[in-house]
Amino acid sequence: MAGPVQSIERAAAILRLLAGGPRRMGLGEVASSLGLAKGTAHGILRTLQHVDFVEQDPATGKYQLGAALLHLGTSYLDVNELRSRSINWADALAARSGEAVRLGTPLEGRVLVIHHVFRPDDTLQTLDVGALLPLHASSLGKVLLAFGATPLDAMLEAAPDSYTRHTLVHPEELNRALAEIRELGWGAEVQEMSMGEAGVAAPIRGQGGLVVGAIGVSGAVERICDAKGRPQPALITVLREAARAISRDLGAARW
After folding, report:
1. DSSP per residue, 172-238
2. 3-state secondary structure of 56
3. CA–CA separation, 105 and 82 (whole Å)
4. Mean of the pLDDT values across residues 17-44?
5. Fewer CB within 10 Å: C terminus or N terminus of the chain?
6. How far apart (Å, rounded) are the C-alpha atoms in residues 20 and 214?
7. Long-range pairs of 107-113 with CB within 8 A, sequence gap ≥ 24
8. What is the DSSP letter of 107?
9. d(CA 7, CA 157)
């Protein structure tokens, strides 16, 4: 029986090193950390970069995990499966809340809306399936960021856009907001993407507890929030019940 392939073992070690670090790493740091010659480490990094498993900062020359590899973290769960498992619960949530419901997953630094249930009234509404929402200014995106479903550093380095005067664009305030989301188990955006609009979202977990998506309710700020601008407790309750139910269907044992 053939033994292990050394180059693959070394590539895996480099990926683990980059995944475990809090920042980008230079060629010298990677090589010294793993006891490799710089030429060997550079060749492996160059190959990993070619297949988008590693990215190199053009300004500093340092390396970090690439988008293709990060996408593999949740690719075991097909988007169609996530949507099919969520449809009935999303419909019920729209009926109970009286508001629009969206289901989102991370895609290339944004939130891809994969399912949208209209608010159950006769008003004119536009289907958002396929829309890409900003991570930092949407409740769906903030939940995905808070629970590690998509990387935060890359978004911050890209200088997040300010959509309204309420949009969180500074790293300190965004980090505080994400810490609060992790503590509460849900996240909100109040007039951060559009004035007069608000939303609240909760994480959806798959097998092993990994967050694979988020489900959210959105609508006019006066319906989503109380007089002090805080999301309605009853709305949070029905939202989290739906998120737990979908997570259970996806095999998240803790839910």
Report:
1. HHHHHHHHHHHHHT-EEEESSSSTTEEEEEEEEE-GGG-EEEEEEEEEEHHHHB-TTSPBPHHHHHH
2. strand
3. 9
4. 85
5. N
6. 25
7. 107/132, 108/67, 109/67, 109/135, 109/150, 109/154, 109/155, 109/158, 110/134, 110/135, 110/141, 111/135, 111/138, 111/140, 111/141, 111/144, 111/214, 112/79, 113/140
8. E
9. 32
Structure tokens, 167 = 């949009």
What is the token pair recorded at 77?
A: 């769960």
Q: How big is the chain, counted in residues?
A: 255
**pLDDT per residue as tens digits for the range 123-162:** 888 888 888 999 999 999 999 999 888 878 877 777 889 9
- Tell the residue number behind the tokens 């805080």, with chain if given: 230
Q: Hey, which residues does 200 pair with through a beta bridge?
A: 188, 217
Instruction: Return the DSSP state at 120.
Output: S
Q: Are 212 and 74 in contact (CB under 8 A)?
A: yes
Amino acid at 51: V
Query: Tokens for 37?
Result: 């010659």
pTM > 0.85: yes or no: no
